[in-house]
Amino acid sequence: MNALDDHTLLAAGAALISAAAWGFGSLLFKRLLAHSAESGVAPPVPAALNLFKNTIALLVVGAFWLHDEAPIPELQAVPWIMLSGLLGFAIGDSLYMAALPLAGVQTTSMLGQLHVPMAALGAFVFTGHELSTLSIVGMAIVLAGVFGVLSAVRAPDALAAQHKRRGVLLALIAAVVYAANVVIGHHGMQSVPMSAGAVLRVTSGMLGAFLIAPVLDRRGVAPAWKELVRPLHEPALWKGLFVASFFGSALALPLFHHAMKELDPGVAAVLFSTTPLFTLPLGLVMGERHRLAAWAFTLLGFAGVALVVASS
Predict the structure, then answer these.
(1) What is d(CA 289, CA 146) in angstroms, rounded to the nearest whole number?
(2) Would you list the DSSP string of 18-37?
(3) DSSP H helical segments within 43-132, as ranges?
(4) First CA to last CA across the chain, in angstroms?
(5) 3-class secondary structure, 127
(6) How far apart are CA 299 and CA 151, in angstroms?
(7) Domain extent listing, the chain
(8) What is the CA radius of gyration of the chain?
(9) What is the pLDDT of residues 72-116, one digit of tens each?
(10) From CA 205, how far away is CA 189, in angstroms rounded?
(11) What is the rounded distance in angstroms from the CA atom of residue 47 to the CA atom of residue 51?
(12) Over the stretch 27-56, which tens digit does the pLDDT of each residue have?
């Protein structure tokens, strides 16, 4: 086996571990929100969890940037990279976290898979990238898998069903935002060092949290920002946040960017989309139970994602 094969295998392993770590982090964030509510502590708003996660992420990717000694991206690329970070790390991740306790991790992560065909469709509309028949078939398979999981993961009562519908809507919007993030980020990250681009994207996500918080919290700027940083003032939340952020950011993000650098983008996209495959067994260990149909439709949805990427 040559050195190139070794690097490819390591990068593929990094992508899979990143997907698993993000899935495990999602389960931990959902459990943290549920545990806070049960213990009488007001659970943090999703944007606050996301800001905490992004703070940890910035420390990690910043260290990689300093180690790489990568140059600062050229000025014309900065707005695109910052917009990508605003969409992905501020808006998309906050919506995703808001959906977790409402729709559940498996449903939320499956809906997140929709960003792959959405990104392919967006590239077709805005950049003229070819959309083959196989791509369209793959999109249909992804939709079938997602709708199958939605029907297989049933809510226990009417109130839970109402919450699930709201969570599904939030996760769908997050998928649209993630797709836009991919298309814009791909344009902005051309010829930009991965570590430098990652620092800009995460920084934009952190700054974006302070911009969107007042929009989500109608009480005004000061109360919204106070709620945003509340986890920093409540030590009872620190342990859970650090553990969830370790898996969701400190571990997942460097591996994600390493794989993005070393792998073909299509291969990387498929491997990153394995998160729902990991959340099923990880959720089983953590006490979550799903019907056999949920397992089958999860596999179907992943097959569709692989087909979309392979035919792009």
Answers:
(1) 18
(2) HHHHHHHHHHHHHHHHHHHH
(3) 46-68, 78-85, 93-103, 105-112, 115-127
(4) 29
(5) helix
(6) 15
(7) 3-310
(8) 19
(9) 888 888 999 999 999 999 999 999 999 998 999 999 999 988 888
(10) 16
(11) 6
(12) 999 888 777 655 666 778 888 889 999 999
